[in-house]
Design brief:
Layout lengths: L1 H58 L4 H16 L1 E10 L2 E8 L16 H10 L1 E2 L4 H9 L3 E3 L20 E8 L2 E11 L9 H47 L6 E2 L2 E8 L7 E7 L4 E9 L3 H19 L5 H15 L6 E9 L4 E7 L4 E5 L2 E5 L18 E5 L5 E5 L1 H4 L10 H14 L4 H15 L7 E8 L1
Antiparallel strand pairs: 1-2, 1-6, 2-3, 4-5, 5-6, 7-8, 8-17, 9-10, 10-11, 11-12, 12-15, 13-14, 13-16, 16-17
Helix pairs in contact: 1-2, 2-5, 5-6, 6-7, 9-10
Length: 471
């Protein structure tokens, strides 16, 4: 019985010890879990506060810089340092974008800079840091975080006027997809003035760097969306403006019928056409093609249309009209901006058509199953001064059934998958076949546009067509 009692006591003791160990481990696990949860909640609140501050910064007048300034302030508070600067890579150099506190790593001896945050901010934004240049330039090359116990004892900081007042310095690169996006630099330990930054402060800065990179990415993405939205709005405005300038309908001018077609390569068109009544018997039909594409070309066409209409009240001859129009554009546009133009002056009283062109494509006529191509001389509008400008004109009688075609080079220069241009020969052939079949003007336009769409791999230039027929 005595042996049994001793064995029982030993077994009971071991059971108590084992149970105690299990309870201790469970308690320790619970304690560590509680600490982890507390840390997670603290981190969640920290990130939430950071994003709230970031949101307030980006909504301000400074946009990107406001968001970066909010990030710098957050870093300064979280790492307990005296000053912080955030740099972003632009090209191959670092550019300062935000600052917190009296940041000393600037190349200025003007003490007033440090008395106003705005002055300091302007100074840091003007400075650039090349790879390998000083401490921060070294971060660009190494792409490694670095902590310096005392900047005043490090030769890499000697170029700064405030060099001797430096204490601890730490910097962390921001890297995305293997590329360095920027650098965060904190200077002087506010928690322990004159002492190096602690390892905890350094680790804290490393943990904050991804948050700042996230802010940068969000701001850049937001800015790109805003820029695209703004461009889309501007393009839509330009498109609406351009559409408002084009004739609302195809006119019937006595025995003359006119039909126009235009297809843009981009959102807005560098081509335009117009029908301008001069008097009861004469009408000017124009087609033009501005150099370039998009909004600049659209604005040049709008200007040309406006000037052309302002000259109609004093119209004398087609040659004089083109000379005045060219001179006006030459004086009011840049040297590298010009526009080609073709115009037909219709005289419904005498059934005449006078044609002139300023660097534009040929005029093609179809009459009695015969094609005639007219190519009078004349330079593009806006290139030459008035004294050097001269335009030839051709006048023909328009017989019943005659069809006339003016076009922009977007048709002839359409390219197929092998790189071959459609060319004038195929365009004229398509036009001739459609006319021979006694098609209406609308059907001729459909035949030509359908042939071009089937031919070209993708549209690279604006395409405009104007047809005139004597019924």
């Amino acid at each position: 019985m005595e042996g049994f009692s001793i064995a029982a006591i030993i077994l009971l003791f071991l059971t108590v010890v084992l149970l105690g160990a299990l309870l201790y481990r469970q308690s320790d696990r619970t304690f560590r879990l509680r600490i982890a949860l507390d840390e997670s909640e603290s981190r969640r609140r920290e990130i939430s506060n950071f994003l709230t501050r970031f949101s307030a910064g980006i909504k301000g007048e400074e946009g990107f810089f406001g968001a970066m300034n909010a990030a710098a302030i957050h870093i300064g508070e979280q790492t307990d340092c005296e000053s912080v600067a955030i740099y972003i890579m632009e090209g191959s150099e670092l550019h300062g974008v935000s600052v917190y506190g009296t940041y000393p790593l600037v190349h200025t001896s003007n003490k007033l800079v440090f008395t106003r945050r705005r002055h300091l901010l302007e100074t840091i934004r003007r400075e650039t840091i090349a790879p390998g240049e000083g401490f921060l330039g070294g971060i660009i090359i190494s792409r490694l975080a670095e902590q310096v116990p005392c900047g005043a004892e490090d030769d890499r900081f000697m170029s700064y006027p405030e060099f001797r007042n430096l204490g601890g310095v730490m910097a962390v690169p921001m890297i995305r997809d293997g590329a360095i996006i920027g650098v965060i630099c904190a200077v002087n330990n506010r928690q322990h003035p004159g002492k190096p930054f602690s390892s905890n402060q350094f680790e804290r800065l490393k943990l904050l760097a991804p948050q700042v990179l996230m802010v940068h990415n969000l701001v850049v993405a937001y800015g790109e969306i805003s820029r695209r939205d703004r461009i889309d709005q501007e393009l839509e405005l330009a498109r609406v403006l351009q559409q408002s300038l084009l004739p609302k309908s195809n006119p019937k001018w006595g025995e003359f019928s006119i039909h126009a077609y235009s297809r843009s390569a981009k959102e807005v068109n560098g081509d335009f056409y117009d029908f301008i009544k001069i008097d009861e018997d004469r009408m000017l039909v124009m087609i033009a093609d501005a150099c370039g594409k998009g909004i600049p070309a659209c604005m040049l066409t709008a200007m040309t249309r406006s000037v052309a209409r302002s000259l109609i009240d004093n119209f004398t001859t087609l040659h004089d009209f083109l000379c005045k129009l060219s001179d006006k554009l030459n004086r009011d546009t840049d040297a590298d901006r010009f526009i080609t133009l073709g115009c037909c002056l219709l005289d419904r009283k005498n059934m005449l058509l006078e044609f002139a062109r300023a660097g534009h494509t040929d005029l093609v006529t179809f009459v009695h199953n015969h094609i005639r191509i007219m190519s009078p001389r004349g330079a593009a509008l806006g290139i030459l001064p008035a004294k050097l400008v001269k335009f030839d004109t051709i006048c023909i009688a328009i017989e019943p059934g005659t069809t006339v075609m003016m076009y922009s080079d977007g048709f002839t220069e359409a390219v197929d998958a092998e790189g071959n241009e459609f060319g004038q020969e195929q365009l004229v052939e398509t036009f001739e076949n459609a006319c021979s079949e006694r098609n209406t003007l609308n059907e001729i336009v459909d035949s030509i546009s359908r042939r071009i769409i089937e031919y070209e791999e993708s549209q690279s230039d604006d395409q405009t067509l104007v047809l005139i027929r004597r019924d």
